[in-house]
Fold each of these.
Amino acid sequence: MADMTSPDTEELGPVDYLVVEFPPATSHFTGEMAEELDKLVTSGTIRVLDLLILTKGADGELDVLEVDDLEDAGELRAAEAKLAGLLAEEDVVNLAAAMEPGTTAGVLVWENVWAGPFAAAARRSGGQLIANGRIPIQAILASIEADEEGE
């Protein structure tokens, strides 16, 4: 495992999150996701800052499990950095609002360790992040397909 001590705030990289929803009766946590996450942590690409499992009942009631609460979370538990959970209760409620009733979702918050030195250099140079975003893979695939059809 990579070093899980608290990062130097001067060298913090950008922090991202994602929520992966699983429809009712399809949340098959086989360990494959934990293995891939472990590879990212071990290689020093990311540092896991928070990791939750949310279950939204058919009535909309929310159940939140921290990684430490999970019985079979060996690799996932080891991957979570020894940092205070970043998500406040209000954040979790806001994320869960997008979930459909009867579903389960995994919430992952991570630091992009690979980008830390560049981000620190930008800050030391007086720069500040003014915009960022993500291009959905579906949009990229559609663009490639459109280019191929136009040739």
Amino acid sequence: MFQRRRHPAKGPHCCPPQMMPMQYDPPQFLPPEQYVRTNYIHTVVPHVQPAHVTTVNKHMIDHQYYFPCTESVVNECCETHTMCGMPPNPCHMPHHHKHMR
């Protein structure tokens, strides 16, 4: 019978890729993000100015207690000005259209 001649290999042979099991690294913890929650408190302040005078005689006894501590407060003020009646808005006035013929 005939014998086949073998040719020398001309480079590496490629094998099909293999799927390896999933690997997990340890979790990476970032510094926490800081959020500021702002509460808006709407306060209506009616101004009523009646007058009455009462004389009160007070005897003051001064009891002094000391409790040092620290505290921080942020006060923000928002104002509104209410207009009772609005001037006409020219952008919302009715237009008179000319009909094209």
Amino acid sequence: MIQHRANMDWMLKDLAESVPQTRNVVVLSSDGLRMAQYGTDTDTADRLAAACAGLQSLAGAVSAEFPHSDGKMRMVVIELDGGFFYLMAAGAGAYLAVLADEGVDAGLIGMKMRDLVARIGEHLSSPPRGEGPAA
């Protein structure tokens, strides 16, 4: 089980508060487990993290269509009625997800996400889980 990393909360808060109209920020492992969150309740963050695992997998499959791709997803952006969804690779086995309202500055949110990942990417990593004893 991946523990909630409370020491990341202030960094996620800084991202959310520095970009007007940012709603939720979630850090998740590649297998869809919530690692940290800001601006949302635990149940919503868990659902978002699980959905993101599927999206990053889909993005990896699409990357196979590019002849020189390394198969790794960097960023997915989805525009929806009412807002935007951003998913960015954030370290080995970790991702940063952001939900924002329609009027968000898309360039600013992308830049702030990249800055956050560059500053603390190694702290956002989620090492692969080893084989444990059978329960």
Amino acid sequence: MAQPNSTSTRRHFLKSGLASTLAASGMALSVPTFLSGCASVTETGRTQRQWDAEANLIKEMIKRPTFAKRKANVADFLKDYNSDFKQALHAAIDQVARQGGGKVVVPKGDWLCKGPIHLQSNINLHIESGATIRFSTNPDDYKPYVFTRWEGMELMGYSPLIYAFEQSNIAITGKGTLDGSAAKDNWWPWKGKWKASTWGDDPVENQKYTRDTLQQMVENGAPVSDRVFENNYLRPPFIQPYRCENVLIEGVTILRSPFWLVNPVLCKNVTVNDVYCKSFGPNSDGCDPESCTNVLISNCTFDTGDDCIAIKSGRNADGRRVKVPCSNIVIEHCEMKAGHGGVVIGSEISGGVENLYAQYCTMSSPDLDRGIRIKTNSIRGGHLKNLNYRNIDIGTVKNAVVVNFFYEEGDAGNFPPLLEDITIENLNVASANRAFVLRGYDHTPISGLTLNNITIKRALKDAVIENVAHLKLNNVFINSQPLNKNEL
């Protein structure tokens, strides 16, 4: 194979700001010198060494929070608050925060929290092994409303179950359990009609009515302070740090969420490590970083009712107004079980995504709909660039790789998505309904997609490939047959 011209394939990385840091470290050598003599050069011009350097640089830039050694045990505060766990916990947080920060310990036991937990700067909320915090399902407990995002739209809404606003150096750690207590008789019916519904007919009171009004307010440019609803059926996410810096979520088990499970928004330096997410309700996404910079998601297990990991950056006019992409993201050593998608971009992606590295992950379940997925449309749009996936093993999945410009509203807007430098390599799939579902627009085809060293051992149906331009293929096999670009 002739040596590829890597100048164009690296252009977005070189513009991203990461390259200047690599240059200072001595890693960003001139292209001809860097490629010469490298047997591991891929079809895209990226070598193993370059990939490692780019992903490792992001990890090195992520600053984990550090805390003072002082600590307080919530049990020591219960007597003063008539055994009310929430009040005792916030008293402990207040005391430690006033002293300069440290660890607030939730000891072994079953604790009912009648409302949200609000974290402060320099606080490590540590849930010990054997401790379970069970959250109330009374919506009024999550008032007063707070500044939040719901499906990528800003509003004054129910407080997330665990929330922090404009704080720094915060953590949720330990081997304990966070249980949102959501079920078919409290939060979940607010979804309304849902394919897995167990609550019978479409409830009269559901999110559609609030959501439609919120979407119209967003399009009209209404101030966020005016986006307040007396009849609010927008379920709160479980954990949402908002405009925070140096965030760590590590070790905990998260169960039965009203809505998305882990949803950092507009945060910088986020680490989600060794977290077990299990929730099968509607919109039970596992981890959804939105408009965040420098994110590491590692060693996590996702068994969810919606996307396992979904990268987001705001919806429609709000995403374009805030205009902050989700950038510099590393996903590695994670396991994806049930879910709508394993590693997903979208669908609230109007602010764009850049510099994603997903690697060394395993995915398998009869209930896993898609492995690698990009979902958007011409209302949501989004500029997606330098997205990289490698060394991913998929057992059973419905569709292995999906890029869909026709999600929900389809081609109904004026903001067609733009894809550049998307690479998937070293992907092995045991069994899929379809290997690929790639659907672009005739006026704006999918572009910049490279598929390198991919094996789909068993695919039951033909791939769907519509309106794809400049597709690069190298060593792609489906049912033991090479995928020939000329036949597409």
